[in-house]
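Annotators were shown the component list below and the corresponding predicted structure, then asked to write short factual statements about the assembly.
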Amino acid sequence: NAGVTQTPKFRILKIGQSMTLQCAQDMNHNYMYWYRQDPGMGLKLIYYSVGAGITDKGEVPNGYNVSRSTTEDFPLRLELAAPSQTSVYFCASSRTTGTAGANVLTFGAGSRLTVL
Amino acid sequence: QQQVKQSPQSLIVQKGGISIINCAYENTAFDYFPWYQQFPGKGPALLIAIRPDVSEKKEGRFTISFNKSAKQFSLHIMDSQPGDSATYFCAASSYNQGGKLIFGQGTELSVKP
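Structure shown to annotators:
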């Protein structure tokens, strides 16, 4: 059972370049999320999706775009990379439990992005 | 605005000691408070969670203490072991905000042998 798979694991970009971080889950989870992790800042929510075709902004969406065409995949697009987007990016998924607020997130292993 | 504030940022504990990590929140609508554990090079994983209708939850050596009136909760790791060395994140979510988790800043725990 793969869980949440992220690719690539590492990437170096030049300022202004574009790229897509891939995320796939095989647990048939409804919810998917993208977080970024910066030292001393914790995990900040970039975008999330409650199902195929539905996405919404999180705390720090500027500079990013997402799409959710299938239940399994939730790619994160960086259009014009900036040094401020240097970070570790985590994709996560969860199943709606029917219990208020009880989303148990399964995280991928992360994608480390450096923008120079 | 940091909705969930976590302290300390780093913690060094001797093997067998008690590790204590604290979190404070502002939004009284939060109704679910998990702790996640992250090892180097890995994604975070759920460790233990609590709801505000109880003041304490224990799972093995890990205990969450919850103080609703003070809007604070803490993680206690009893008999800390070198294998507990990791980064710990507290988080909070509310049903009326779609259950999205808001994370604290993280605490890097090092347990010395």
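Statements collected:
1. The two ends of chain A are 36 Å apart (CA to CA).
2. The interface with chain B takes residues 4, 31, 33, 35, 40-45, 48, 50, 58-59, 90, 92, 94, 100-110 of chain A (CB under 8 Å).
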